[in-house]
Design brief:
By secondary structure, the chain is of the alpha/beta class. The two termini are 26 Å apart. Strands 3-4-7-8-9-10-15-16 form an eight-stranded parallel beta barrel, surrounded by seven helices. Strands 5-6-14-11 form a four-stranded antiparallel sheet, with no helix packed on it. The protein is built from nine helices and 16 strands.
């Protein structure tokens, strides 16, 4: 039998399959319909320091081979998560990753301080959030602002491994990745959703109140793979076997997709949108990945990592 275990920033995962933030709640929501304990890890829904009610209006819109969302980080806040959700999440078994978002450095660092003292295994920093003091431009759209956010969180997150989640909407995701690595990221996850636009033809108006929204699902997989390749070939620390592993995501819906990401340099993968229509995607992907590795003679996930580069 092939060994599916992986190590990300010093943390051991039983396999490379991680539930992506915003698609799996805190894990217990799915525990009655799938064997959640079989996952390698679970990313919590996006957390902010203070509770948020999310965006008004339509929040989800189906597109061919994709899903647009404008949820707006609705969440009960970091303190509620630690007090009321984390214990049950830890009991599920997979590695617990808290996804942290914020609109300014103060909210990022306040949330990070709480998580640093908690029992979460890792923190995933979402820098696709709008910087409220820079006219709403996302923190992750340029290297300078990305470095500022990562450095601020790194200073207060002394006891937890830090994953930085990158936006594909930056002019140069590889430059942002390099800045995040230089500022203290222990790992990267990419990509977040692509900015997209939809029209309600009956109203002759944008579908979403915020005009644009994030596109996920199978439609973005080739684009996500391209960004992943750009990062791992451009940032030496992110190359297969490097000091800063990369977790790939974006349109993964079967074991073949997972293999593509791993062969493009990902040390692990996150699955998100696919779980909405097919919660069994995790068990199916795990089974297919195991059979493929056994058939091809890959003893470990690292044996496949980067073979297509």
């Amino acid at each position: 039998m092939s060994d599916l275990s992986v190590k990300i920033a010093g943390v051991d995962f039983k396999n490379p399959l991680i539930a992506a933030s915003g698609t799996f709640g805190y894990g217990s929501e799915y525990s009655k319909i799938i064997p959640v304990h079989e996952l390698g890890g679970i990313c919590s829904k996006g957390l902010t320091f203070e509770p948020r009610s999310g965006n008004p209006g339509i929040r989800l819109w189906e597109t061919p081979s994709g899903l647009m969302n404008s949820v707006g980080l609705e969440n009960p806040g970091v303190r509620h998560f630690v007090r009321s959700e984390l214990r049950a999440m830890k009991k599920l078994g997979p590695v617990v990753i808290a996804n942290l978002s914020g609109g300014d450095l103060e909210s990022y660092t306040a949330g990070a301080k709480i998580l640093n003292k908690s029992s979460v295994d890792m923190v995933e920093l979402n820098i696709s959030c709008p910087n409220v003091r820079a006219g709403g431009m996302a923190w992750g759209l340029n290297p300078e602002s990305a470095s500022e956010a990562v450095s601020a969180v790194r200073r207060v997150l002394a006891d937890k491994p830090l994953i930085v989640k990158l936006s594909p909407n930056a002019p140069s995701p590889a430059e942002v990745a390099a800045a995040a690595v230089a500022s203290g990221a222990d790992a990267l996850s990419l990509v977040n959703t692509f900015q997209a636009f939809a029209v309600d033809i009956e109203k002759a108006a944008p579908v979403f109140n915020n005009v644009t929204a994030g596109l996920s699902g199978p439609a973005i997989k080739p684009l996500a793979l391209r960004v992943l390749r750009d990062v791992v070939v451009s940032v030496p620390e992110c190359a297969p076997g490097g000091s800063v592993p990369v977790i790939g995501l974006g349109g993964i819906s079967c074991w073949q997709d997972a293999v593509e990401f791993i062969m493009t340099g990902a040390s692990a993968v996150q699955i998100g949108t696919a779980v909405f229509s097919r919660p069994s995607v995790f068990t199916e992907t795990l089974s297919g990945l195991t059979e493929f590795m056994d058939r091809k003679g890959y003893a470990s996930v690292s044996d496949m990592c980067g073979l297509a580069l």
